[in-house]
TrEMBL record:
It comes from freshwater metagenome. One of its GO terms (molecular function) is serine-type peptidase activity. This is Unannotated protein. PANTHER family: PEPTIDASE S9 PROLYL OLIGOPEPTIDASE, PEPTIDASE S9 PROLYL OLIGOPEPTIDASE CATALYTIC DOMAIN-CONTAINING PROTEIN. Pfam families: Peptidase_S9.
Amino acid sequence: MNEPVHSVEAPFGSWSSPLTPAAAASGSSRFGEVFTLGSDVIWVESRPGYARRAALFVSDTSRATNSEFLPGAEISARSTVNEYGGGAFWLHGDPRTDGRVYWVDAVTQRLMSAGADALPRELASQSPTASLTASSTASSTLAQAGSTPARYCGGVVTPDGRWVICERESLQAPSLDLLDDSPGVASNSEAANELVALSTVHSESVPLVGLGQAGSGDFTACPRLSADGLSLAWLRWDHPDMPWDAAELWAAELRYSDDGSISLSKQRRVAGGLVGGTVRGLARAVSVCLPEWSPDGYLWWCDDSTDWWHLYRSKTVGLPDEGSGDSADPLISGAEEEVGEPRWIAGGCRYGFTDDGSVVFAAKSGGFDSLWSFNLTTRERLPLPGPQFSSVDSLSVQGRSVAVIAGQHDRPSSVFHIDLSTGAVTDLRSAQVAETASSDVATSDVGASAQPPLGAGWVSTPRHISFPTGTSPDSGAQAHALFYPPQSPMFHGPQGESPPLIVRIHGGPTAAARAEFSPSVLFWTSRGFAVADVNYRGSTGYGRQYRDQLLGEWGVADVQDCIAAARFLAEQGLVDAARCVIRGGSAGGFTALAALCFQQQWGCAGTFVAACSLYGVTDLAALAADTHKFESRYLDGLVGPLPEAADTYRERSPLFHAEHLTHPVLLLQGADDKVVPPAQAEVLVAALEHNHVPHAYVLFKGEGHGFLKQETVVKALETELAFYGQVLRFLPDGREPAVENLVGWPPAPSSGRMGA
């Protein structure tokens, strides 16, 4: 690594960085959906300075202005459907004139709307306990047992504005023989996920695709309405499948009666599921995602019938024939890339349609996203003008305008407008125009800054690596990662030394490491750490076959791949084999703990010398028993069905093998976590204490599954840095490291040398 002549030699990990814990915690925004509305682009963003309110912002692309949308309404749009939410706002016309904006209130989860008067109103058609259909006694008992209101997301509005069609998640009424005075009665009833039409003019609500209706399932989601309002498409899947295993695409006619009511008819499966896989000659089901209607009336979707989540289009305009999508050809065949993505959250889109017969889409390949246009007539595929984006969250297309939430490896994610007619690109959050030939998007003082908190000399450039994995070197198995070397214009490591490595594991586990400007990565690389963000077998972005390699193997394949990544990088001389640590959140926390726990039995003792788990799983059986509906059968595929696979759950759970945890462990946990309850961490803490394993446990009040408060993120980063300082024996930022409540670990020596 070539260092600037003015850089100072200093132990890895001890480098000072302008990316302080406070800067890393406060310098980024969280985005939701983006919509185009004439010359305006509207998006949802939780940004510093707005008390983390998920506010709506608007930018007039013709005048380069940026402001809060309907500020008088004080909109905070966030849904908690399936716990992961998404799809929290949508539009009908222009709310500043004669239209309305609809959103799910972040606090109450009630469905709200506002118009030009900016006066928020609740939709009268939503019921407090929408799916309670038994008796008044049942409703009363559920209310006493602590039942919650129905939750909504992913809405669309009929052309006449009289109906909102959206996802609804609500409790079912329990059987009457379960009704008694004991608490927790409601917990015996699984939530109902359905599509419902809510009237905007009176109190009527109509279940369109609910329990027992055609096209319904354990999960019914993602309603999409054709431009003429006459056809509705949606997704459905059943336990024990997850949507990326076997989701079906359904469609139906939407009928409006003279009396003002609404209903569906001619419901049919269009593509996907086990039937779709059988038609294709596959020994598996097909997963469909991201349905959309093009302005000219065709139904579009992504499915993985050719291994990759490619784009497909119906053969005819309007309501497609039954099963007609099973024999459709992908828009672009042979490309090893994915337009589709796992359906963790509602809302968002990865493609849209221009007015000249082209489709604009984001595609992921080799760990990186890119933006393309494809002309349906000429079959010409072209990259979009503007910056070379490395990650794309969502996009919206209208006419010749593209709005996209995207990021680059050296700049934070932002909202961009791309004018396909001129090639001009505007960073809407800084309201500055960037020329097509330049990816240098400047930032003004208007709105929230997209300027990186680090200069270019501090930013580590990721590169995609592939490496052999598995228990046998002759197996031919491969895994992937994004590798970030340490980077600083002020410091370089001691001559002849390699940097320590942090192996990061993404959550999910059916997700992927994102090639984006990440303060949580750069916080470490700017201090002298190398980082490997592992896309272990089972990660998305590499096709269905790669994704399915985790089925039945969670706790094995992912762990092997993380160990293999560390050993591969050490063999290449890129990191110090004696100073590798592993960290992850949620499912990634489980993998981190399992790697530390089982590395010795796989002949890889000492690969990792410490682990940090953020709200991570410790007991697989407890996760299966305690988690929410969306993931309640997730482990059937990843580990095996219960009770048949009970022994496997125990064998792979770090909780029951704490005697193998002989290296230090840091546990960071949210007190209000519903996905991975604190009890999972606390039982492991007790085991670590019993076995005299060095460890620290920090519980953050008011935090759920993923930390949102700035003070929490700051404390977590400070604690983790100090933890590595004590374990690897270096002085973070020149100060003696000290982790509060680090049990069983001697104080670090005063030497500044790592590993001294």
